[in-house]
C-alpha cells in the first residue's frame, strides 16, 4: 500500500498540485497532510478545494488555528468551514500498521514540533535522543508530523517518525509504502529539496518578498 505524505502547504497551489499529480502517477491509495493548510500564501480557497478534490486526510496546524482566530465572527465560505472541521489527530490502520498523524507532536500539539536538524541539516543528537525517550512507549507504527519545515524519516523510540517537509518551503513531498515501511522523498517545483528550512529568518524574508500576503497578515492582526 502506498500513502502520499505532504505538510505545510501554506495556501500555495502550484507545489501542492505537483505533489498530488505525482501521487496519482505513483498509484497512492491515501494522501495525508500534516496541517498548516493556511498561512503565508494567497491561495487558500484554491488550496482547500484541491485537498477536498483529492480526498486528502488533513489535521489542523497552528496556522490553520490562527487563521480561524483572526477571522473571528467573519467566518464564512468553503475555507472557513473546512478549517473549522479539521481534527487535531488522525489515527488509523493500514496494511496491518497503525498510522498516527498530528501537526507538531503527539498526542495533539500544534506547536511543540519535532526538530531533529540544525540550520545546516545536520542531526542534533541531543534532540534525537530526547525524542526517542519521549516516544519509547508511544503505541503506533508510523507517526506523521509537520510544523518544523524539516525533512526526515527516523525511528524514534517505538514509531517511525516521518516529516515530509513543506511543499512550499522544503520543496518536498514523500511516499510511504506499507507494510515494508519504506519512505521516498520527491523534489517539487524543479528545486532541490531543502532538508531544514530556517523558519525564523527565512520566513521573515519570504513574507517581505510577498507584500500582498504580508499586508493581509497585518490587516488580520489589527
Walkthrough of the structure:
A five-stranded mixed β-sheet has the order 3-2-1-9-10, with helices on one face. The chain has a five-stranded mixed β-sheet with strand order 4-5-6-8-7, with no helix packed on it. Helix 1 links the parallel strand 1 (2-6) and strand 2. Helices cover 32% and strands 22% of the residues. It contains seven helices and ten strands. The protein is globular. Residues 212-222 have low confidence and may be disordered. It is of the alpha/beta class and 222 residues long. The protein has one domain (2-221): Metallo-dependent phosphatases (Purple Acid Phosphatase, chain A, domain 2).
Report how far the terminal alpha carbons are from each other.
Answer: 47 Å
The tally of structural domains comes to 1
The CATH superfamily is identified as Metallo-dependent phosphatases
Helix content range = 25-40%
Structural category: alpha/beta
Task: List its traits.
single chain; alpha/beta; Purple Acid Phosphatase, chain A, domain 2; 10 strands; 32% helix; disordered C terminus
Amino acid at each position: 500500500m502506498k500513502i502520499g505524505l505532504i505538510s505545510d502547504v501554506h495556501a500555495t497551489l502550484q507545489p501542492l498540485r505537483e505533489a498530488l499529480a505525482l501521487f496519482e502517477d505513483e498509484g497512492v491509495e491515501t494522501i495525508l497532510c500534516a496541517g498548516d493548510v493556511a498561512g503565508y500564501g494567497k491561495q487558500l480557497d484554491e488550496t482547500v478545494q484541491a485537498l477536498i478534490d483529492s480526498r486528502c486526510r488533513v489535521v489542523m496546524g497552528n496556522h490553520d488555528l490562527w487563521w480561524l482566530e483572526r477571522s473571528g465572527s467573519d467566518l464564512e465560505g468553503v475555507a472557513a468551514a473546512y478549517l473549522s472541521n479539521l481534527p487535531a489527530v488522525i489515527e488509523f490502520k493500514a496494511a496491518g500498521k497503525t498510522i498516527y498523524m498530528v501537526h507538531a507532536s503527539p498526542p495533539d500539539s500544534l506547536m511543540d514540533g519535532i526538530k531533529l536538524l540544525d540550520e545546516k541539516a545536520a542531526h542534533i543528537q541531543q534532540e534525537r535522543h530526547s525524542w526517542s525517550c519521549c516516544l519509547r512507549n508511544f503505541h503506533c507504527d508510523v507517526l506523521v508530523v509537520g510544523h518544523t519545515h524539516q525533512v526526515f524519516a527516523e525511528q524514534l523510540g517505538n514509531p517511525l517518525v516521518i516529516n515530509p517537509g513543506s511543499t512550499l518551503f522544503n520543496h518536498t513531498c514523500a511516499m510511504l509504502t506499507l507494510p515494508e515501511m519504506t519512505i521516498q522523498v520527491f523534489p517539487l517545483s524543479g528545486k532541490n529539496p531543502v532538508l531544514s528550512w530556517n523558519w525564523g529568518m527565512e520566513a521573515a524574508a519570504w513574507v517581505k518578498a510577498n507584500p500582498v500576503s504580508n499586508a493581509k497578515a497585518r490587516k488580520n492582526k489589527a
